[in-house]
Structure formats: C-alpha cells, structure tokens
Design goal:
Blueprint: H1 3-15, E1 26-28, E2 46-55, E3 69-76, H2 89-100, H3 105-114, E4 118-122, E5 136-143, E6 146-153, H4 175-195, E7 201-209, H5 211-229, E8 235-245, E9 262-266, E10 287-290, H6 296-303, E11 315-319, E12 327-331, H7 339-350, H8 368-388, H9 391-403, H10 405-414, H11 417-430, H12 437-458, H13 467-476, H14 478-483, H15 487-499
Helix pairs in contact: 1-8, 2-15, 4-5, 6-15, 8-12, 10-11, 11-12
Length: 501
C-alpha cells in the first residue's frame, strides 16, 4: 500500500472520524468510456453482466498489483417500478456496483455503458480535487414514461477529499459531508434542468460507498424534502431509490420520519460505520441492514480463492521508562477479540469526560466543541505536511523517529516542547521538508493534553481496555481492519445475503 495513503488512513483512526478509508482505486480492464454517450434505445433488458477491475487495494489481499477481480451484477428496469421503501437486495447489489466501481471517470462510465445509461456527466473533482470537494457522476435512461436518473458519488481513491472527513463541525449534521451533499445536489438539479426534457417524470437512483455513502445518505433525505415541497421538478417522493454501503454516521436528525426508502447495508464490524461516534449524537437516515457474517473469511475466499482475510487480534503496549527500549507490543490473550465490542469500547473511552485521576492539563474529546477546538484546527496543516513528504523522504524519516523515540516520548511526558520541537525539526530539516514551527508547537501541546488524559487511564490497567491499547491494536491490525471495509468484502457479504435469504 502507498505509504502516504496508509498515513492518511491512520489519521481518521486517531481522530475518531474518517471517511473513508475508501482508498481503493478502481481501473477497468475495458476501454474507457466517453463522457458523451450515444442514445441507443433498449426496451427493458433483464441481463447479467460482469465487471472486471484491478484495485490499489490488491496488496492488502496479498494479490499482485495488476491482479483483476471480477464482479457479477444483474440489471433490470423493473427494479425502479417497485415500491422504493421495500428493500430489494438485487437492486442493492447493482447499486453496490454503481458505487463501488466509481474510483475513476473511466470505470464509472464503463459501468453506465454496461447498463445502457446515457448522457453521462462527470463532475470536475475527478480531475482536480481539494480537501472539501466531491466527485460524482450522473447518467440517465428513459424507460416507458419515466427518466431514471442515476447519481453515483465517488467513495474510492478520492485523494485530498479524505481530509474533509475530519471536519465534523460543532453542531448539526457532519459539516464536511453536508457541504459535499450540497455540491452534489446543485450538480443534480443543474443536470435535471439541462439534460432531462421539461415535463418528464423522473425516478432518482442514488448510491454511495464509505464517505460517498454518508453524502448519499444526506442527499437522499434532502431530495425527499425537496420533492415534498414540490421544488424538485418531476420527482415524486415515492420515486427515490437510495442505497448506501458502509455508511459513516452523518446526521443528528431527531425527527420521527423513518425515511424507509433509504437502505444502508452495513458490515457491523467495519470501523468506518462507527464514526463519527454515536457519543456525539451521530447516526444515519433510513433502515440499516447488517450484512456481517462470523464466517466472513470463508465467504470472501469463496468469492475469490485468492482473497485471504486474517482475523483481528488484540494487543497492548508495555512501557518501561527506565530503559532505552520504551515500547513493546504484546498480544493480549485476555483482550476483547470481538471487533464490534472492541471498537465500541474504544470509542466510549475516547469520548468520555475528564476523570478525577487525570493529570494536570489533560484534555478529553468528550464533546464536538472540544473535538473542533483540539483536532480540527490541526487537520489541514498536518495534512499539508504529510502530503508534502515524498516516499523517499519517508524512508529516512521513519528510522529517524525510531532512533529518537525515547527523546520524543519523554519530551511529551515532561511537556518539554523545546526539546520535542527541536528533535522533530532536525529530522524534517535533514530531508528538507518545509514546516511551520509555531504550528508544530501548537500541535504537540494539544496532542500532549489528549495523550495525558488517556495515558492516565492507561496506567490504571496496563492490559485492560484503554485508548492507548486500542490504538496499538488498531495499528497492529490495520490490514484486517481495512479488509472489512473493502469492496470485495461488501460484495461477498451481499452475495451471501442474497443467496441465503
């Protein structure tokens, strides 16, 4: 896996929010599709088709980088003339395809070609994105008296957009996901006005995976509201088909409406589905279908025999401040092995309030305001620094950090920021990485406050559940944890769900 992407994956774990670890890019083995489509007419195809992709996540599965994985889907126009509130797992699997192959313009355009959708529009963020942009593709097909308008939000290989996942905001729905939703909605309404004939009856098909699932979840509720108001021309509330996969929590809505037309397929052991944490009041719109199976490793292997999933194992950290060797990883035989319970415990501790035994200057993350004041202000500067580091520079930096680990850790514990900053500066200067010294000092000050809050709890029970031990286990299990969030896993579990209804 690309080292910088690994670092960006670890950032959400440490900050208790993300996106998406959706960093698996897709590239089709077929010819790229043009963004302008022919208007070939198909009556009502009921057909199966295969879609072959190679992913940058291949190495997580132990596959060669150029290995191709083949997915099978079935399309049927009739899906969109059934009750949208009645969950359709076949449409769900197809929607997983529409969301899951959207890593590039080429792959999503090829997917729409396969199901005979035309007038394909790709948003500009595929070519140039920012920390707060969003990429999406819209296409359409006329069936009988309706125009089916499909919107696929990109949830894979979204580069700089991953940083936006950290921005929760102090209140209301997730700030960055909401901004992304508004951008997609603006693009959708523009598309409807530009590409759909006036007076047409429209059915909306919406799908997203990971970060894109959160955006799609908010978008689905938003278009429903607009359809009720009558301000989304041609769309009736009964004609919205919304399917989300591995959806991060995104809303704090407390109304009574169930929004049963929104279907969230969630692997309940997938870390991404737990964040932002429920302790901040976050949840999702619509119904939730747990697709997890305890024999997930076997299910994934049955889909493709090359795919090997390793099980989660808990670890703990042993500290010995009297010696130079201060860090030692150990497997914890008494630790929580159920990943769902493990994550729930970790997030509960990560968001609990300051306790009586906390040391001076300890800082908790018990509220969104504290999170914003402590974490959010450092996100973009830290991302700027991380993304500026080349793989060649990182090969020098990592050994240097290990060599200076004792100085770094003891400087944090003693609040010796002069030594800490000087040590980090010397490492960055050696490889000529630019940095802001004032921001470094501010980052380390806030980081120490958070560490000391949880370190105090850690010393209460060295092998028991704690944020420190949880972080150690997360790092040691990064491949199996990410593995539970990959497209191949969701696809395998969806196929199992359909076969064993």
């Amino acid at each position: 896996m690309n080292v910088k992407k690994t670092l960006l994956i670890l950032l959400p774990i440490l900050a208790f929010t993300v996106s998406a670890c959706g960093s698996a890019a897709s590239s089709s083995s077929s010819d790229p599709a043009s963004s302008s489509e022919s208007s070939t007419s198909y009556a009502n195809p009921k057909e199966s088709f295969s879609f072959k992709i190679k992913e940058k996540a291949n190495r997580l599965w132990g596959l060669d980088e150029d290995a191709v994985v083949e997915f099978d889907f079935k399309y049927n126009d009739d899906y969109f003339f059934a009750d949208a509130t009645k969950r359709n797992d076949d449409l769900g699997l197809l929607s997983l395809g529409m969301a899951g192959v959207n890593g590039t313009k080429e792959t999503i355009n090829n997917f729409f070609n396969a199901i005979h959708y035309t007038k394909i529009y790709n948003s500009p963020s595929y070519d140039k994105n920012t920390y707060h942009s969003i990429a999406y593709t819209i296409a359409q097909k006329t069936v009988n008296d309706y125009v089916i308008v499909a919107t696929s939000v990109r949830g894979f290989d979204y580069h700089l957009e991953m940083v936006g996942n950290f921005f929760l905001g102090e209140s209301g729905d997730h700030k960055d996901f909401t901004g992304a939703m508004e951008a997609v909605y603006a693009g959708l309404t523009d598309y409807l006005a530009r590409e759909v004939p006036a007076g047409s009856k429209v059915k909306l098909w919406l799908a997203g995976y990971s970060r894109a699932a959160a955006v799609t979840n908010l978008l689905s509720k938003h278009v429903y509201d607009k359809a009720l108001e009558g301000t989304l021309k041609g769309v009736d509330k009964k004609d919205i088909y919304a399917y989300c996969f591995e959806t991060p929590s995104c809303t704090v809505y407390n109304g009574q409406e169930s929004f049963s037309f929104i279907h969230n397929y969630m692997n309940s052991r997938d870390f991404i589905t737990f964040i932002p944490p429920k302790q901040y009041g976050f949840k999702v719109y619509g119904d939730v279908i747990d697709i997890y199976q305890s024999n997930v490793a076997e299910i994934v292997k049955n889909f493709d025999s090359r795919l090997i999933y390793t099980e989660f194992k808990p670890y703990y950290l042993s500290l010995d401040l009297s010696s130079e060797k201060i860090v030692e990883f150990k497997e914890n035989p008494n630790g929580e092995k159920d990943l769902k319970k493990f994550i729930e415990t970790m997030l509960a501790k990560a968001t609990e309030k300051t306790s009586d035994y906390d040391v001076e200057s300890a800082t908790d993350l018990s509220t969104r305001t504290k999170y914003a004041n402590i974490v959010e202000k450092h996100i973009e500067p830290t991302a700027d620094l991380v993304l500026s580091i080349t793989p060649e520079q990182l090969e020098i930096i990592i050994p240097a950090i290990k060599e200076n680990a004792y100085t770094i850790v003891t400087s944090i514990l003693r609040a010796d920021y002069d030594t800490l900053v000087a040590t980090v500066k010397s490492i960055l200067d050696e490889v000529q990485v630019a940095y802001n010294e004032e921001e470094l000092r501010s980052l380390f000050t806030d980081l120490r406050g958070v560490i000391m809050h949880y370190l105090a709890q850690y010393f209460q029970d060295i092998t028991g559940p704690s944020v420190v031990n949880s972080a150690v286990s997360m790092v040691k299990n990064i491949i199996p944890i990410i593995g539970l969030h990959l497209l191949e896993t969701s696809y395998s579990l969806m196929k199992y769900l359909i076969a064993n209804k």
